[in-house]
Design goal:
Elements lengths: L3 E4 L4 E4 L7 E6 L10 H19 L3 E8 L4 H10 L3 H18 L7 E4 L4 H13 L3 E4 L2 E4 L15 H8 L12 E6 L14 E3 L1 H13 L3 E7 L3 H16 L5 E7 L2 E3 L2 E2 L10 H7 L2 H9 L7 E2 L2 H27 L7 H19 L4 H18 L6 H18 L13 H19 L3 H13 L2 E6 L2 E6 L3
Parallel strand pairs: 3-4, 3-10, 4-5, 10-11, 12-14
Antiparallel strand pairs: 1-2, 6-7, 7-8, 8-9, 12-13, 15-16
Amino acid sequence: MVLKIYDTLTREKREFKPLRNNRVYMFVCGPTVYDLSHIGHARTYVAYDIIARFLKSLGYSVFFLMNITDIDDKIINRARELNINPFELSKKMTEEFFNDMRALNISSVNLYAKASEHIQEIIQQISILIEKGCAYKVNGDVYFDISKFPEYGKLSHQKPEELIKHRIEPNPRKRNPGDFALWKSRKPNEPFWESPWGEGRPGWHIEDTAITYTYFGPQYDIHGGAIELVFPHHEAEIAQGESISGVKPMVNFWVHTGILTIKGEKMSKSLKNYITIREALKKYSVNALRIFFASSHYRSPIDFNEEKLKQAEVISENLYRVYKKALNLLEKTIEIECNNEIINEIEAAKKSFYDAMEDDFNTPQALAILINFSKKIDSYISEKTGKKNLENIVNAFKEFFYILGIFELEEKTTEKDETILNLMNLILEIREEIRKRKDWKLSDEIREKLNKIGFIIEDTPQGPKWVKVKS
């Protein structure tokens, strides 16, 4: 099979081909950091973590970028309630978000980009939109003029007037009711930056466009986010990005996750059904949570059901038990010729698993294949299974576990790897100095050259990491 992904824009599954050889550029809308992250965030970010892991398992070099909205109305209002500085709140909540991502074993994000660290890029893009006649100034505010982008609404497949009727409050300062803010003029006791239009701060939509353009250029492979972001957020991103560059489409595949409910209701603090990630992890293991999320297709709605979570915990325990059984037997078994029945079972399971994942990342089917594989292996293996057979079984489990992000174990570095380890660490130190000087071109060239000789570089909030691709 070939990888096919459902694209929200075209409303069809299409064969996935990266725009730039083997390199995949994927952007996912990150959180607005005014509060602790909840299980809706967990569902979305686990889904994209699995997608990134699978893309890597297919041999792609993935640059997974996520933004952090650290300046926004919600942050300002919450900081006012708490009587603290908005940046103090956003800094604390960003750190808490990173803690939650680590706790969920979400490790595939290469770079988290804060909106506040890209103000100059935002100002530059707004300037371009004004020069092109796509945006206009009103007393220190700047708005995007949707009448200048005839395709506005193409992602949600609705006409602008239909969108505006349901989602837009009238504002007499705008030329059109659906025009959206690119820059908001300074208000008392709010954070602000200098701009050609006066002191103020960016609108929400332009942050993401500026960030993706900075790191990916005008066109990239995958844009992800929750389904509720299609309008107005993602519609606005398309209008901004394609108006600035003239390149279409801005994104090759729009990938959206379904909503999460609690007992059939939307999560809300007023309904007292708001569950943070850390609250969920106190009750359920990270492996059970990830298995629970994977048991529904990423595009489908999912209900946070306690009974299903208990089932996921049982599945987690059974998978790990069989894996450990094989691992323990491997440590004390003897060399025996490979059993063709076991080899065939492993190959069949791998093929079926990858076929499922290549069908728009069908994790429910892939998970079912893994569970069935585990049951069969449990009945096969014993002290007479043989070392090579057990090695193949353990490696198959590790491969499945890696893609789903469960039961991961750190590989120990042997003495033989010491020279490579030291050399790679030295190269990454030099590359970090280059990145500090914002020489992104040279930094990317180093990454690409290392990738060609089998080393994948990942930029994380804790610094760069590298992994040797299996030959």
